[in-house]
Write a structure and sequence with these properties.
This protein is of the alpha+beta class. The protein contains one helix and five strands, in the order H-E-E-E-E-E. Strands 1-2-3-5-4 form a five-stranded mixed barrel. A hairpin with a 6-residue loop joins strand 1 and strand 2.
Length: 115
């Protein structure tokens, strides 16, 4: 119902000394894995859908540094913490600058745009 932009999820494991450690019915590792994959697949679909809403818009983006692809692509974040990969039109780094970026596409966990 909430439709978070992103979620970090892991398999549950009891911690020594907690009440959960004393519970009699424990899930198997296979069931934990199945449930985690189900949750992550659902969240990936929600994330893709929520990122798609930004395509076609121009957003201010704080440039943080080079993207994983390297120059001429840089990476930054919107005020809503969405990661944006940007092809730069020049050789200057722009790190620390806020630039207007037109969002041209959405990826699995990030956006792509041009200045």
């Amino acid at each position: 119902e909430i439709q978070y932009d992103y979620a970090y999820s892991f398999k549950y494991s009891t911690r020594p000394g907690t009440q959960a450690e004393k519970l009699p019915h424990k899930l198997s590792e296979a069931e934990k894995t199945r449930r985690l994959h189900y949750l992550q697949e659902k969240q990936d679909a929600i994330t893709r859908n929520r990122l798609q809403r930004w395509v076609g818009q121009t957003l201010p983006v704080l440039i943080e540094g080079p993207s994983r692809q390297g120059f001429p692509q840089v990476c930054g974040r919107t005020s809503g913490n969405q990661i944006v990969n940007i092809n730069t039109p020049s050789s200057r780094t722009m790190i620390g600058e806020i630039v207007d970026v037109q969002i041209t596409s959405s990826l699995k966990h990030s956006l792509f745009g041009v200045i």
